[in-house]
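Illustration: phosphoenolpyruvate--glycerone phosphotransferase.
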Amino acid sequence: MTSGIVIVSHVKEIGEGVDRLIKEVAKDVPITVAAGLDQGEVGTSFERIMAAFEENPAQQLLAFYDLGSAKMNLEMAIDMTEKEVLLFDTALVESAYTAAALLQVDTPLEAIEEQLVPLKIK
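Result:
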């Protein structure tokens, strides 16, 4: 099963920057971003997250976020999508980068999850 990455950030530039960074090591991994609000406001939206899920061609998505309210919107979107979404409570940049790099070389999901354990936010 092909896996993709979804980045959720409160700030448009952060989401776009993480996307840009991880594409340097994972050019074949589908990545979509839901970041910021209209008119450049800070925040996340359920609608943008749903769009990121749907725009990503992968059926299994690894989702990474920056702050707690992004997690709340992600959890609501996960309940509404038919895709398999794995939500990671890990450091956004480091974990998205690590997961994407490992997906690029066809690392099994179980091994990716093991690599992300030290990046868990407590």
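Reading the tokens back as a structure: The helical segments are 12-23, 46-55, 68-80, 92-104, 109-116.
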